[in-house]
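Comment on both lines for my students:
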Amino acid sequence: MRLAGKKVIALVDDEFEDLELWYPVYRVREEGAEVHLAGLEKNKTYVGKYGVPATAEYSWDELNAADYDGILVPGGWAPDKIRRYSAVLKLVQDFNEAKKPIGQICHAGWVLISAKILEGVTVTSTPGIRDDMENAGAIWKDEPVVTDGHIISARRPPDLPPYGKAFCDALAGE
């Protein structure tokens, strides 16, 4: 239980990619970390692209990055919605400033783009947003997982096993 005592936020909104939310959440929990789901509305149930529900335990507005050790941003279509909220962008910026692990997979890069934290950062994502990532100043690589300091990125669901491990390693300080 190398992550015992660690706390992580996982962002949710409708049309998140089901596996890209739940796989990392369970992977982090199985190593002992506490994970809180957060959405625009506390206690609202959001539905993934394939119908898997996720109920937000907190609203974005009531969270403070100082109270957490890392943040997970799932892909799907949810990131295009999530990126529009200043509370989320501030959270991501605060995690970035504190150099705490930020996990993003697939289309989740859109949230980091809108938070304006990718200048000079080496990342990956779904190839569909490669141009967006590069236009935000990122150095994009077509690899299953890319870790650049505290930012851990992955392309798509087949990359979830190495992504989950890389995020847990970052949380553990390894």
